[in-house]
């Protein structure tokens, strides 16, 4: 007996129209959101500039055909590239994400909402170079706030990782919505574009986990935000959409990829996510380990004052939360930098040995130090259920870790606990000066002193930055 599926085309799924309504109609009025978006812009571009020091990243950037020239294309910060907007989004997105050092959002699903800047900046710059009245940077900040919100609110109650999908599906959806609005899609075209993002092939999360952990996790978001630009441009031509892409029986996203469950929403779209975003300020480490690294550095100083080294350690207990155990608790060989920066034991061992954790510490020359693996073997991770509850509590959203070190001579140090990393909203006042310092350091990697000064002064001035044409801003950021 076969079930009859009606051929009548339905109205668009409610989730599609919720996103479209927000992308097209919501007026962002939060000064805090715009200020935070400005800091996010600085930090995100700085992360991309640092990534340009790594050949594994730079080999993937630029035009597909090296001879391609796009005279009025979007420019890629920190480089000489001027590309079509799809490839520019890919390059900017890959740079931003490469070192796992840009902002983070933690909930039922994890992710990095600033990944959306690849598509937003590429499209806004391309439009500005090809129209009489260019977009201004306030348009970019508004699109960032909205992309953060779409990705982050969808992530609050819906775990894509538990069905094996990577969080970049949310980058693609969020980027598609805001980019479609930037290019002037009608409401119906924007709904169609969002449906295209859901019907598109979605990335498996396997490249973030053993035994397949690899460098795709560093360019997956660039791929997603570039795909979003492509889908928005396709939809602008009037290409049809798929109104029940989520809810269609048997063939829709829910039945095929989400175990038949509809999405849940904890809160309406606003500016909550940007206001509460987590900045990675101190360490280029998977965010669930940020506080563990901070604990380790405190312990390193205590050991130093006692005349002890990592070789004197007998065992280490890491008291942590469920998400950290599921994602970054790893034993055995680590194959590459992508594996190491997603292993809490590695990210604790390096600061206990060297008193630091930098992007370079994931490379082979540091990882070959035998002390690191010896120390990893002495670590045990245990879940603290209260930590796991606090992690999901919307009033706390903590990312807690605690370390206890016992030495070979039988002595031990008191447990060190850090609940909120320096990039958390609860430590925003403490963290912003360090974020600006991080940006200054990254500017110095690529630009002469006078250019550094000009960029920094512009980025520190909220009003002037917002009024600056996008193409003028990007011109400051290229070689």
Description:
50% of the residues lie in helices and 6% in strands. It has helices spanning 14-25, 31-51, 55-58, 85-97, 117-128, 137-157, 168-182, 187-199, 216-236, 253-257, 272-275, 290-306, 322-328, 337-340, 344-354, 364-367, 370-376, 385-392, 428-443, 449-460, 462-467, 470-476, and strands at 74-75, 82-83, 105-106, 110-111, 313-320, 379-383, 401-407, 416-418. A four-stranded mixed β-sheet has the order 6-5-7-8. A hairpin with an 8-residue loop joins strand 7 (401-407) and strand 8. Helix 1 (14-25) packs across helix 7.
Fraction in helix: 40-55%
Give the count of helical stretches. Answer: 22
Category by helix and strand content: alpha+beta
Strand content: 5-15%
Q: Whole-number radius of gyration?
A: 23 Å
Strand order in the sheet with the most strands: 6-5-7-8
Number of strands: 8
Query: Overall 3D geometry?
Result: globular
Low-confidence stretches: none
Order of helices and strands: HHHEEHEEHHHHHHHHEHHHHHEHEEHHHH
Give the distance, in angstroms, between the N- and C-terminal Cα atoms: 66 Å
Summarize the structure in short.
This protein has 479 residues and is α+β, with helices and mostly antiparallel strands. It contains 22 helices and eight strands.
Keyword list:
479 residues, alpha+beta, four-stranded mixed sheet, 22 helices, 8 strands, 6% strand, globular
How are the SSEs ordered, and which strands pair?
Blueprint: H1 14-25, H2 31-51, H3 55-58, E1 74-75, E2 82-83, H4 85-97, E3 105-106, E4 110-111, H5 117-128, H6 137-157, H7 168-182, H8 187-199, H9 216-236, H10 253-257, H11 272-275, H12 290-306, E5 313-320, H13 322-328, H14 337-340, H15 344-354, H16 364-367, H17 370-376, E6 379-383, H18 385-392, E7 401-407, E8 416-418, H19 428-443, H20 449-460, H21 462-467, H22 470-476
Parallel strand pairs: 5-6
Antiparallel strand pairs: 1-2, 3-4, 5-7, 7-8
């Amino acid at each position: 007996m076969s079930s009859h599926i009606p051929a009548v085309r339905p109205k668009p799924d409610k989730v599609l129209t919720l996103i479209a309504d927000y992308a097209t109609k919501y007026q962002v009025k939060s000064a805090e959101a715009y200020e935070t978006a400005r800091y996010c812009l600085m930090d995100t571009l700085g992360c991309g500039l640092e990534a340009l020091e790594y050949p594994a990243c730079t080999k993937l950037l630029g035009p597909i055909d090296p001879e391609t020239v796009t005279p009025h294309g979007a420019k890629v910060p920190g480089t000489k590239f001027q590309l079509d907007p799809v490839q520019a989004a890919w390059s900017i997105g890959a740079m931003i994400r490469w070192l796992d050092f840009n902002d983070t959002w933690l909930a039922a699903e994890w992710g990095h909402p600033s990944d959306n800047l690849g598509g937003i900046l590429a499209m806004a710059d391309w439009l500005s170079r090809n129209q009489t009245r260019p977009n201004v940077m306030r348009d970019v900040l508004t699109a960032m706030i909205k992309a953060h919100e779409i990705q982050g609110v969808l992530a609050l109650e819906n775990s894509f990782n538990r069905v094996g999908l990577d969080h970049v599906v949310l980058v693609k959806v969020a980027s598609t919505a805001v980019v479609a609005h930037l290019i002037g899609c009608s409401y119906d075209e924007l709904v169609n574009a969002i449906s295209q993002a859901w019907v598109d092939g979605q990335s498996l999360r396997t490249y973030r986990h053993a035994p397949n952990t690899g460098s795709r996790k560093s360019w997956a978001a660039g791929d997603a935000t570039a795909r979003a630009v492509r889908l928005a441009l396709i939809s602008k031509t009037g290409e049809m959409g798929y109104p029940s892409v989520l809810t269609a029986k048997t063939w829709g996203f829910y039945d095929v990829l989400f175990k038949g469950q509809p999405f849940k929403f904890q809160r309406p779209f606003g500016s909550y996510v940007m206001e509460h975003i987590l900045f990675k300020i101190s360490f280029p480490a998977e965010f669930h380990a940020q506080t563990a690294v901070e604990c380790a550095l405190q312990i390193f100083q205590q050991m130093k004052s006692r005349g002890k080294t990592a070789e004197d350690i007998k065992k280490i207990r890491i008291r942590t939360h469920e998400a950290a155990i599921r994602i970054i608790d790893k034993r055995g060989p680590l194959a590459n930098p992508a594996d190491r920066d997603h292993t809490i034991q590695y990210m604790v061992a390096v600061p206990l040995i060297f008193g630091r954790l930098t992007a370079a510490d994931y490379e082979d020359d540091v990882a070959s130090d035998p002390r690191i693996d010896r120390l990893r073997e002495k670590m045990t991770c245990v879940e603290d259920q209260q930590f796991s509850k606090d992690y999901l509590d919307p009033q706390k959203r903590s990312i807690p870790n605690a370390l206890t070190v016992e030495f070979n001579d039988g002595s031990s140090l008191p447990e060190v606990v850090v609940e909120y990393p320096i990039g958390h909203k609860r430590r925003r006042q403490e963290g912003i000066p360090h974020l600006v310092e991080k940006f200054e350091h990254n500017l110095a990697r690529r630009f002469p002193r006078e250019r550094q000064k000009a960029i920094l002064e512009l980025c520190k001035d909220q009003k002037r930055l917002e009024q600056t044409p996008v193409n003028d801003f990007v011109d400051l950021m290229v070689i």
